[in-house]
TrEMBL record, chain A:
Xref: InterPro entries: ATP_synth_F0_csu, ATP_synth_F0_csu_sf, ATPase_proteolipid_c-like_dom, F/V-ATP_Csub_sf
GO cellular component: plasma membrane; proton-transporting ATP synthase complex; proton-transporting two-sector ATPase complex, proton-transporting domain
Protein location: Cell membrane; Membrane
Domain V-ATPase proteolipid subunit C-like: 8-70
Transmembrane segments: 12-36, 48-73
Nucleotide-binding recorded as keyword: no
Membrane topology label: Multi-pass membrane protein
Protein name, per record: ATP synthase subunit c
Length: 74, 251
């Protein structure tokens, strides 16, 4: 029974990856909106874009880690 | 995990998607620390690939570069510009370390995309060592270069005085979470992508959905090529950001 509950918990933790998707979409969408307004400044900001995406994604990765722990370690 | 693996008679999964990450001895027998395993083999191949790209193609340098030499020059220029832009002029001294990290991760990721191969960067053991090495180096460097002024990284002097202790706690936590997110981002992305490909491969055994599944595998494979490069890039650029924080800790 406990193992089954852990599987349900792992599925619930996967909701976090959807939340991370919203965050990454926000970063990329706002970058695109800014880049289309001022294309000449866009190239110099791609590094910032990737850093922003990486930070937004990190929290989704944590939920993935929780799911992995529930599946294999608990 | 055994229950999923026994769906073979219904045409479902005949293998577990995570089986591809098993570490096996190359010549059989039990695994000890000195046993040659598939992980050691593919890590060695990644290093050979780096040597092949960066050393062998540039031994006979020419003004008009050969194909290999131009790829090597492109990779060098790409990482050099990234270090210079993000870490600043005084971060360029640490360029060899960051170049080594980038080339190893990118080669290991791409070698892992070869069918039937083993992806070393999908293992937390590998990426945690890489990230801890970066974390310890950068922390030591911060204290050597700035002394106790390095602690100014946690004391946000531009914030109101009442807020600073709370911000300091948040900053300390986010500093020590760095190696965790740094390593798990790489391993998690690579491992999840490969596992998704295997899940699609499991559905390919069912005749009705196999065309969709095979199209899915092709699409995921294309995405994985992109992810392999981007994750190596993100790992390297975050190393540059941490290096910048160590060299210039004031906010």
């Amino acid at each position: 029974m406990e193992g089954e509950l852990a599987h349900i918990g792992a599925g619930l933790a996967a909701i976090g990856s959807g939340a991370a998707a919203i965050g990454v979409g926000n970063v990329a969408g706002n970058f695109l909106a800014g880049a289309l307004r001022n294309p000449s400044a866009a190239a110099s900001q791609t590094a910032t874009l990737f850093i922003g995406i990486a930070f937004a994604e990190a929290l989704g990765i944590f939920s993935f880690l929780v799911a992995l722990l529930l599946m294999f370690a608990v | 995990m055994a229950s999923e693996a026994q769906g073979a008679e219904t045409g479902g999964l005949e293998f577990h998607p995570m089986d591809q990450f098993n570490i096996e001895s190359l010549f059989g027998g039990p695994i000890a620390w000195y046993t040659p395993t598939n992980a050691a083999l593919w890590m060695g191949l990644a290093i050979l690939a780096v040597i092949g790209l960066m050393v062998l193609t540039t031994t006979k340098r020419s003004v008009v570069p050969s194909r290999g030499q131009s790829v090597a020059e492109l990779a060098y220029g790409f990482v050099y510009k990234m270090v210079e832009d993000v870490s600043g002029k005084d971060g360029v001294v640490y360029f060899p370390y960051i170049m080594t990290l980038f080339m190893f991760i990118v080669c290991a990721n791409f070698l892992g995309l070869i069918p039937m191969s083993f992806t070393t960067t999908s293992h937390f053991a590998v990426t945690v060592v890489l990230a801890m090495a970066v974390f310890l180096t950068v922390t030591a460097l911060g204290f050597v270069k700035n002394g106790t002024k390095f602690l100014g990284l946690f004391w946000v002097s531009s914030a109101p005085l009442a807020l600073r202790p709370i911000l300091a706690i948040i900053e300390v936590i986010s500093y020590f979470v760095r190696p965790v997110s740094h390593s798990i981002r790489l391993a998690g992305n690579v491992m999840a992508g490969h596992a998704v490909i295997k899940v699609f491969a499991g559905f390919a055994a069912i005749a009705v959905v196999s065309p969709i599944a095979i199209a899915g595998i092709v699409a995921m494979y294309a995405l994985e090529i992109l992810v392999s490069f981007i994750q190596a890039y993100v790992f390297t650029i975050l190393t540059c950001v941490y290096l910048k924080d160590a060299l210039h800790p004031s906010h």
